[in-house]
Amino acid sequence: MLTQQAIDAFAGLTGAAPEGVWAGPGRINLIGEHTDYNDGYVLPFALPQAACVAASRRTDGRWRLRSVDLDETVELGADDLVPGTPGWHSYLAGVVWALRQAGHRVDGADLVLTSDVPLGAGLSSSAAIECATLTALVDLNDLQIAPIDRAKLARVAENAYVGAPTGLLDQAASTLCKADHALFLDCRTLETEQVPLAVTDAGLEILVVDTRTRHSHVDGEYAARRASCENACQLLGVPALRDVTDLDSALARLPELEARRVRHVVTENQRVLDSMTALAAGDYPELGRLMTASHASMRDDYEITETSVDLAVETALDSGALGARMTGGGFGGCVLALVRADRVDGIVTAVREAFASAGLGEPVTFLARPSAGARRLV
Ligand code: ADP
Ligand code: MG
Questions:
Q1: 250 and 187 in one domain?
Q2: Measuring from atom 17 of ligand 1, which residue has the nearest CA?
Q3: Across the chain, where does the E strand assignment appear?
Q4: Ligand 1 atom nearest to 122, measured from its CA
Q5: What number of other Cβ atoms are within 10 A of residue 149's Cβ?
Q6: For position 217, what pLDDT does the model report?
Q7: How many domains does one find in the chain?
Q8: d(CA 230, CA 148)
Q9: For the chain, which terminal residue's Cβ has fewer other Cβ atoms within 10 angstroms, N or C?
Q10: Which CATH number covers residue 160?
Q11: Distance, CA of 305 to CA of 300 (rounded, Å)
Q12: Which of 29, 88, 133, when mutated, tests ligand 1's pocket best, judged by the most ligand atoms within 8 Å of its CB?
């Protein structure tokens, strides 16, 4: 449906059919929170929700960019590709710029975008549009770029052109994920591994509860957590918290606050590795336990949860989820719950009722089946 919408909108803009249609999915992190900037491990998977880009080459060296969702079109020439330009189109223009900066020849193009990844919900609508665009431009220009390098280029677009200082997680997930798998990413070495996550084969679903709470102080809190981690590294004399091997002796050498932050990061890294072992063995109850332990660690040691996500996690667990945790940077956003398929409806009802009783706004829920990364659709 999204594909057809992109094709129709492309015809509306140009009067012709596109040369092709490409998709880039949103992503969600199964486990491994605030580990990326500590050179640690993350385990995201791609969502069924994706950005769709219908595109054709142009011969005049210009780029026409349209968002169907925002009903806006902009046209740019090579001189208009200026890092720091504000606006939604900078995510697409940034991809053109990053490719050219890296020495790739990129012809002008018409690109028409539509996406069902919700904006700003922590599901990476930004990486979805970047990675769909990048995949389209790679194919249209016949470029040979390895998948991990595509993810890096999409990150350059977001970091250097849009100006958002994010890690590689979002773009790596949107580019490299495979259906029924999570993607292990070592944020130091950028080594990746596909980890089976065929939840439906096990009679399970991953239920996402978007609490729709977003707090304005998130940026400041994020900076404070990073500063605590850097401070702890200095005190411990290690390059990154990834390098803490003896947790107990490290904790004994740190002030109380730093100790709790470090305990979260170090145990969370271990939980990512343990989740890989659990998934390799098909041990979903163990995965559930690790998810719930991750939430407790974010709540008590890293102190990045808040009322609505805690309530969603507790209610899901009380209603029979195998495990549940907040996902994303924190202070609101989404919760993931691992649930038996026959319990989904009951858990959704229980969470809705709990939110209503607590006077919170209605949450949005959906099932997140691990899906394929960026690809050509048509
Ligand atoms: P997230 O990636 O968590 O959804 P970001 O703030 O990183 O949030 O990215 C959201 C931004 O990406 C939007 O403000 C908009 O500029 C751009 N964006 C995402 N999806 C679309 C879309 N369908 N059309 C136009 N711009 C989009
Ligand atoms: Mg984003």
A1: no
A2: 88
A3: 20-31, 41-57, 63-67, 72-76, 109-115, 181-186, 192-196, 204-214, 323-327, 332-340, 364-367, 375-376
A4: 3
A5: 12
A6: 79
A7: 2
A8: 27
A9: N
A10: 3.30.230.10
A11: 9
A12: 88
Q: Going by CA atoms, what residue is nearest to atom 24 of ligand 1?
A: 67
Q: Full-prediction pTM beyond 0.90?
A: yes
Tell me the CA–centroid distance for residue 125 and ligand 2, in Å. 6
Same domain, 110 and 242: no
Return the residue matching tokens 């922590």: 122
Note whether 147 and 205 are same-domain residues.
no
Q: Which residues line ligand 1 (CB under 6 A)?
A: 67, 69-70, 88, 91, 113, 115, 119-126, 129
Residue ranges making up the domain that contains 91 = 2-195+372-376
Ligand nearest to the CA of 119: 1
pLDDT reported for residue 157 = 98
Question: How distant is the alpha carbon of residue 274 from its chain centre?
Answer: 21
pLDDT at 134: 98
3-state secondary structure of 11: helix
Question: Do 8 and 115 fall into the same domain?
Answer: yes
Q: Write the residue with the smallest CA distance to atom 7 of ligand 1.
A: 126
Residue nearest to atom 15 of ligand 1 (CA): 88
- Nearest ligand to the C-alpha atom of residue 112: 1
Convert the pLDDT of each residue in 192-239 to its tens digit.
Answer: 999 999 999 999 999 999 999 988 778 899 999 999 999 999 999 999
User: Which ligand has the shortest distance to the CA of 87?
Assistant: 1
The residue ranges of the chain whose pLDDT is under 70 are none
